[in-house]
Specification:
Layout (H helix, E strand, L loop, with lengths): L7 E8 L3 E7 L6 E7 L2 H11 L5 E7 L6 H8 L3 E5 L16 H14 L10 H34 L12 H8 L6 H33 L4 H7 L7 H11 L8 H7 L4 E3 L8 E4 L5 H12 L5 H8 L6 H5 L1 H5 L14 H25 L2 H5 L1
Helix pairs in contact: 4-6, 4-8, 7-8, 7-14, 8-10, 9-14, 10-14
Length: 375
């Protein structure tokens, strides 16, 4: 290979909705601002053609953000290597805090790309991204439903309207009472009708998205892994679908600890010298994944559907899932609801989801083997 064809040109992109600011770093020297182009496929194609002259091999990078993976997929189709990097893991310089421009951001990306200090994120294919969007839309719909419930509850509290004593909130009798509720003032009746209609619409939206998520999960190629994850106590269809959507391929985590870090379930630490001080979990990872692990670990129950899944399990999957419940019961009895007191509760509150994440990672690695996929 000649000297010209072996030269690498590092390009940092600051991607926005309408424009892309470019900075170029050669193999030696300071990065330089190249210019700004429109964020459209034709402009990106011209950029690759111009920067790829003289036989240079291009390496590009831009920060993950609201622009998604559109630019990365365009560049990949053009045969150019492009990384989407994690913004939270980009080294920050304290000297440039007072001056921030698109050109400086692009130059920093080009410099760090050349030095190898950028951490690339996993870019899913379009099919997996669509499945992940459905799962995340369900979480958004759930949050909206809770928001509408709180709004309506606070409205009734301000008016001094309370359900009968024996009626539990959001049960069927409570919904009947709420549907029959009225107010003598016309304006307040209008507000009540609006809040109720928004609540009913949010419930219909959530039910629709849960149905679509279930159908999308069952049509995924990793259906065997989806079923295998549900053999853990506390893990249902929502938890397994969320783990599959957010992780994609479990083999991209070489260790269980790396997967726990991705979920934000590892303890924070502030140690120096001989002093070791650990605090609460970092919560720096994937919030949806952390939420389902928390819910699964602390709402684990043995059900008939779980027993049916375990009875039909193959010998390759059963040992991993069967090791989770004894560790979960260590120190408390879930069935009777007896809990230890004090600091033991706080330690186990984060230890159980962390251990469950480790078992899920092990199951994901086992089921991701080519032989298991073929089976």
């Amino acid at each position: 290979m000649s000297e010209t064809t072996s030269r690498i040109r590092y390009v940092g992109l600051d991607v926005h909705k309408e424009t892309i600011t470019i900075a170029v770093a050669e193999e030696a020297g300071r990065p330089e601002a190249w210019g700004t182009i429109a964020n459209d496929p034709q402009a990106v194609r011209r950029l690759v053609r111009q920067l790829g002259q003289e036989g240079c091999r291009l390496k590009l990078a831009y920060e993950a953000g609201p622009a998604g993976y559109v630019v990365q997929r365009q560049l990949t189709q053009l045969g150019v290597e492009c990384q989407v990097v994690a913004p939270s893991l980009i080294p920050k310089s304290t000297s440039g805090r007072r001056v921030k421009t698109d050109s400086r951001d692009a130059e920093q990306l080009a410099r760090l790309l050349r030095s190898g200090d950028l951490v690339a994120i996993w870019v899913p294919d379009e099919g997996h991204e669509a499945f992940r969007e459905v799962v995340r839309a369900r979480f958004v719909a759930k949050k909206d439903l809770e928001r509408h419930r709180h709004q309506l509850g606070k409205l009734l509290l301000r008016w001094g309207l309370r359900p009968p004593v024996s009626v539990t909130r959001w049960s069927k009798p409570y919904r009947r009472w709420l549907a029959e509720l009225s107010h003598p003032l016309r304006d307040l009746q209008t507000v009540l009708d609006d809040y109720r209609s928004a609540l009913w619409a949010a419930e219909e939206r959530l039910a629709y998205l849960e149905k679509q998520m279930s159908e999308a999960a069952r049509s995924r190629p990793q259906l065997a892994l989806l079923v295998a994850l549900q053999m853990f106590r506390g893990v249902g269809e929502l938890s397994s679908a969320t783990a599959l959507a957010e992780v994609g391929d479990f083999r991209r985590f070489a260790r269980a600890g790396a997967f726990m870090n991705f979920a934000g379930l590892t303890a924070s630490e502030h140690s120096s010298g001989e002093k070791q001080q650990r605090g609460p979990i970092t919560k720096t990872g994937n919030s949806n994944l952390r939420h389902v692990f928390m819910q699964a670990a602390h709402n684990a129950r043995t059900s008939l559907s779980l027993e049916l899944r375990l009875s039909s399990a193959t010998t390759g999957r059963r040992p991993i899932s069967s090791r989770w419940p004894p560790r979960l019961r260590n120190g408390c009895t879930i069935a009777t609801g007896t809990w230890p007191d004090g600091s033991a509760v706080r330690r186990r509150w984060c230890r159980w989801p962390k251990e469950l994440a480790g078992f899920v990672w092990a199951m994901g690695h086992r089921m991701s083997e080519p032989a298991r996929q073929a089976a």
